[in-house]
């Protein structure tokens, strides 16, 4: 099957405007601005079943329909902050298929009536920002951006904005604070960005991969898109595969493909032929899945992965084999989250700090079983109390590692305790 | 000379990206611009930016302190920032960092005696399939080096050394 998002793997040179245009590039934008009302475009995306690819999986068309039409101007922000350990898909899309992404930004902007859109890139994507700036200038020169998009009365400018090294800025309200020139700390929600977003105006924040799905949906139609994937999770997904596999990388597959297909067919299997012991399906923000043959044959879609006690999230599949102890993995994730906690809310700031100290002591060998139980307790105390998802995410690996792999923490634990 | 005097076009282009009544948005791009001269943000540059955007120097300092890619003191000419997060660590990033530090005669966070390289361990850089890897932050660029070995990294260090000598 040809790629839908990673089209550069089928069409060499698609990062050049002329080649992109020869392969149907900007047909979707032309069709939208000349034949569809913004509300019709939103309906089409709703019907397609497209869900946000940044991790939350919220239906994209529904998100757009929340935009407050009593308050203007509107903004679109493309979330290109991609900082979740295990996630590296947006980077490939922007580097290799940039026009499809930017056309998606233009489609989302048209749907919600935005005349300005910002692409928020993590600071490390310095070179990609420069590349996008040049692509944006080419689109403007060709009449796809500017005061008269495709010769219509609709005007749109796209700007890049570079972050500077802060995972939390991937959280949408922290991202808006950061664009406003402040420390990137999340806002209390509600109000949500659709009502009170950038500069206090209605704003839609969509992930890069989500946006890159829009041009093919508009060109080929919602029904074409929906027939790929599963009823719960329509379309295709770029899975970032990493960890102890032979061929880590991005692999685009329909939702509902199995872990086995990803790890063994695309990923070439586990290093040294070892067995898969655990999977983190959503990067460092994952629960651990205990892996057996049945799990490997589970379809990867939002609903199915939930039955395994985890979330698919951004589909950043980290493979852990039987050479790895889970207490070490948890130490890695806790060092990450305690470093990246923004410090605004107490449960996350203090919780990640103390969890890190506890896991360090456990790893140094000076701890008792009671310390492992205390770590579990701190994690559970944090849950549902943090201002934004970061704090919650930091607890998932801790709780599921200790409960599902107690032997790795020196804990004797009966099932269900 | 103030930042706006030195870089009139750049400052103008940056301010034009944001609504005039929200010029505070320009603080991050202006900090990157300020970092271009010395490799870190000087007190004078902080004052320039505060004045340009009607902010207090404390506001500007708060932004610098929050983000890891802004620096307010001089370190090595290049920052070699090795990702040691989980996916990279599963593919040998920690052993790579240790061997690299041994070869350069520094500990993590330290700068080589010649002031050329500061070695740092950093969080995920979205290159999990290409470990071991690091980014090289210089005053006006961030360059990725992926699927690295210690030998190839030491070669890169030699190249940077030669380049500095030739520039001098």
Structural topology:
The complex is a heterodimer of chains A (417) and B (168).
Chain A lengths: L16 H6 L4 H9 L2 H11 L11 H6 L8 E7 L8 H8 L1 H15 L1 E8 L4 H16 L15 E6 L9 H8 L23 E5 H5 L1 H7 L1 H5 L9 E8 L5 E6 L4 H8 L9 E9 L4 E2 L2 H4 L5 H5 L9 E6 L4 H15 L5 H19 L4 H14 L6 H16 L13
Parallel strand pairs in A: 1-2, 1-4, 2-3, 5-9
Antiparallel strand pairs in A: 5-6, 7-8, 7-9
Helix pairs in contact in A: 2-6, 2-10, 3-6, 5-6, 15-16, 15-18, 16-17, 16-18, 17-18
Chain B lengths: L2 H4 L1 H9 L10 H12 L4 H11 L3 H10 L11 E6 L2 H4 L3 H12 L12 E6 L11 E5 L2 E5 L4 H18 L1
Parallel strand pairs in B: 1-2
Antiparallel strand pairs in B: 1-3, 3-4
Helix pairs in contact in B: 3-4, 4-5
How do you describe this structure in short?
With 417 residues, chain A is of the alpha/beta class. Chain A has helices spanning 17-22, 27-35, 38-48, 60-65, 89-96, 98-112, 126-141, 172-179, 208-212, 214-220, 222-226, 259-266, 293-296, 302-306, 326-340, 346-364, 369-382, 389-404, and strands spanning 74-80, 114-121, 157-162, 203-207, 236-243, 249-254, 276-284, 289-290, 316-321. In chain A, α2 runs parallel beside α6 and α16 packs antiparallel against α17 (369-382).
């Amino acid at each position: 099957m040809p790629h839908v998002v990673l089209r550069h793997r089928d069409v060499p040179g698609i990062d050049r405007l002329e080649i992109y245009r020869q392969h149907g590039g900007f047909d979707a934008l032309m069709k939208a601005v000349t034949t569809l009302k913004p509300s019709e475009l939103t309906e089409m995306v709703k019907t397609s079943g497209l869900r946000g690819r940044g991790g939350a999986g919220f239906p994209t068309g529904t998100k757009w329909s929340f935009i407050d039409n009593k308050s203007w101007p509107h903004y679109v922000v493309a979330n290109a902050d991609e900082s979740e350990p295990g996630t590296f898909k947006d980077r490939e899309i922007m580097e290799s298929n940039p026009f499809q992404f930017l056309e998606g930004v233009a489609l989302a902007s048209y749907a919600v009536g935005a005349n300005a859109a910002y692409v928020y890139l993590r600071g490390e994507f310095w070179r990609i920002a420069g590349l996008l700036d040049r692509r944006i200038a080419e689109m403007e020169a060709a009449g796809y951006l500017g005061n008269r998009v495709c010769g219509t009365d609709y005007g749109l400018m796209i700007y890049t904005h570079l972050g500077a090294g802060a995972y939390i800025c991937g959280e949408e309200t922290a991202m808006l604070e950061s664009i406003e020139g402040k420390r990137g700390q999340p806002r209390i929600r509600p109000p949500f960005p659709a009502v009170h977003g950038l500069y206090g105006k209605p704003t839609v924040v969509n992930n890069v991969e989500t946006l890159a799905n829009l041009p093919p949906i508009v060109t080929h139609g919602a029904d074409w898109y929906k027939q790929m994937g599963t009823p719960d999770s329509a379309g295709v997904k770029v899975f970032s595969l990493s960890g102890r596999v032979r061929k880590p990388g991005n692999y685009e597959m329909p939702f509902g493909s199995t872990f086995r297909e990803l790890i063994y067919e695309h990923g070439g299997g586990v290093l040294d032929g070892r067995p898969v012991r655990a999977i983190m399906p959503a990067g460092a923000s994952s629960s651990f899945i205990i892996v057996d043959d049945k799990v490997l044959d589970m379809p990867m879609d939002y609903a199915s992965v939930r039955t395994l006690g985890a979330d698919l999230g951004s589909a950043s599949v980290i493979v852990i084999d039987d050479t790895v102890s889970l207490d070490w993995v948890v130490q890695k994730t806790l060092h990450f989250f305690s470093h990246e906690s923004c410090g605004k809310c107490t449960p996350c700031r203090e919780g990640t700090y103390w969890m890190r100290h506890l896991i360090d002591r456990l790893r140094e060998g000076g701890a008792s079983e009671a310390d492992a139980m205390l770590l579990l307790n701190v994690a559970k105390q944090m849950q549902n109390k943090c201002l934004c998802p970061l704090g919650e995410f930091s607890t998932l690996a801790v709780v599921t590692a200790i409960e599902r792999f107690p032997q790795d923490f020196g804990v004797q634990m009966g099932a269900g305790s | 000379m103030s930042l706006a005097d030195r870089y009139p076009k750049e400052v103008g282009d940056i301010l034009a990206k944001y609504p005039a009544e929200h010029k505070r948005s320009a603080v991050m791009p202006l900090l990157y611009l300020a970092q271009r001269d010395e490799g870190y943000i000087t007190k004078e540059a902080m004052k320039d930016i505060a004045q340009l955007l009607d902010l207090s120097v404390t506001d500007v300092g708060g932004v610098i302190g929050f983000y890891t890619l802004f620096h307010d003191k001089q370190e090595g000419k290049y920052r070699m920032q090795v990702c040691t997060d989980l996916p990279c660590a599963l593919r040998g990033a920690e052993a790579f960092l240790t061997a690299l530090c041994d070869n350069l005669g520094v500990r993590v966070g330290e700068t080589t005696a010649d002031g050329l390289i500061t070695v740092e361990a950093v969080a995920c850089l979205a290159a999990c399939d290409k470990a071991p890897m690091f980014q090289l932050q210089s005053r006006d660029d961030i360059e990725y080096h992926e699927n690295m070995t210690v030998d190839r990294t030491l070669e890169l260090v030699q190249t940077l050394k030669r380049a500095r000598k030739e520039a001098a």
